[in-house]
């Protein structure tokens, strides 16, 4: 039973951990320079300009048309086998994180982890890099593993929301029959047994309009030096709707289409998780708090990691070490 004091303490720890994480420079550099020679973006300009901007009116010109095209796609990934995927894992990544992607493929992101009983589909999300060599390397990696999707927006920290929306769009378009979707990052450890068998439960009826993760109730930071700075003209309110930390959240697959469609009429914000929270509020979907989602780092211990769903800030080396330890000690009791 959490008291007010312990809640406050937890909040302080979370804030510091997040701040340290950002300061640690573990995030990819966001300084992109140079010009890109990419396919011109096709805009969905409506034939008539409708001044009536009721957001439920689908004929209104989209505020945020997401007029991007897939440069690398896996349109048949979902349909190659008989049963629909139980879980689609969307992992936000950057071009240079080759090691992180490989570590995930070889550990918790392995699509054959539960065999044919519980189908898992893993996809890495990328935009277009300003360095053509990196785009080429990713294209080659994609031809080997067939687990990367790329749209033609510029890949940058400020465009993370576009990356998430690309993932939502992919699920809604190419795999609406999936049961659940997880969106996470490339430096997250996921306890798949816990996630699949204790939280989502393949034997139960799939939920609808379900959304869970580490729920944050906060407001915009107006300090321009902050990584989470939110200009007043972009978001005037003093509070955000409840949102799940972008380090890892889970939702029923129907929500992908709902969020994607809502996003077309919702002004884009660069804070990906806040933006998804805004879409959820419009949809009347309330995110559930789940204590298994840790959006800060947590020292490894077998028994502690058995209880979690996600842990943040795990390097590719640690991911292998943790995975090997946990799989070799499945018989041990805690
Ligand atoms: C806008 O459209 C809605 C539904 O189409 C309608 O009910 C409303 O009266 C319209 N408002 C204006 C100002 O035209
Ligand atoms: C985000 O992507 C769009 C489309 O490619 C691009 O015009 C814009 O400059 C990008 N924003 C940033 C901050 O990189």
Automatic annotation (TrEMBL):
Membrane topology: Single-pass type II membrane protein
Keywords recorded for this protein, A-Z: Glycoprotein, Glycosyltransferase, Golgi apparatus, Lipid metabolism, Manganese, Membrane, Signal, Signal-anchor, Transferase, Transmembrane, Transmembrane helix
GO BP annotations, alphabetical order: lipid metabolic process; protein O-linked glycosylation
GO CC entries: Golgi membrane
InterPro entries (UniProt xref): Glyco_trans_31 (IPR002659)
Top-rank lineage group of the source organism: Eukaryota
Keyword Lipid metabolism included in the entry's annotation: yes
Cofactor(s) demanded: Mn(2+)
Name under which the protein is recorded: Hexosyltransferase
Annotated organism of origin: Denticeps clupeoides
């Amino acid at each position: 039973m959490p008291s007010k004091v312990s809640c406050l303490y937890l909040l302080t720890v979370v804030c510091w951990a997040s701040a340290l994480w950002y300061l640690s420079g573990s995030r990819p550099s966001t300084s992109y320079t140079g010009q890109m020679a990419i396919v011109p973006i096709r805009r969905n300009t409506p034939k008539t300009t409708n001044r009536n901007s009721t957001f439920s009116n689908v004929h209104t010109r989209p505020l945020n048309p997401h007029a991007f095209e897939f440069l690398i796609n896996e349109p048949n990934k979902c349909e190659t086998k008989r049963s629909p995927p139980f879980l689609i894992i969307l992992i936000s990544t950057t071009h240079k994180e080759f090691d992180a992607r490989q570590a995930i493929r070889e550990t918790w992101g392995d699509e054959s982890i539960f065999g044919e009983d519980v189908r898992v589909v893993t996809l890495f999300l990328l935009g277009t890099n300003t360095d053509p060599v990196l785009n080429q390397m990713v294209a080659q990696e994609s031809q080997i593993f067939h687990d990367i999707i790329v749209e033609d927006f510029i890949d940058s920290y400020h465009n993370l929301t576009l990356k998430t929306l690309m993932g939502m769009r992919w699920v809604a378009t190419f795999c609406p029959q999936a049961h659940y979707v997880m969106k996470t990052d490339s430096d997250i450890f996921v306890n798949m047994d816990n996630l699949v068998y204790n939280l989502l439960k393949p034997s139960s009826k799939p939920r609808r309009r379900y959304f869970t993760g580490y729920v944050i109730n906060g407001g915009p930071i107006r300090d321009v030096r902050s990584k989470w700075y939110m200009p007043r003209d972009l978001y005037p309110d003093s509070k955000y709707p409840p949102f799940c930390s972008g380090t890892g959240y889970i939702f029923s697959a129907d929500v992908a289409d709902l969020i994607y469609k809502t996003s077309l009429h919702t002004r884009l914000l660069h804070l990906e998780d806040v933006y998804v929270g805004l879409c959820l509020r419009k949809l009347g979907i309330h995110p559930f708090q789940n204590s298994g989602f840790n959006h800060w780092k947590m020292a490894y211990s077998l028994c502690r990691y058995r209880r979690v769903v996600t842990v943040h800030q795990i390097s590719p080396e640690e991911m292998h070490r943790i995975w090997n330890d946990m799989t070799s000690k499945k018989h041990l009791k805690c």
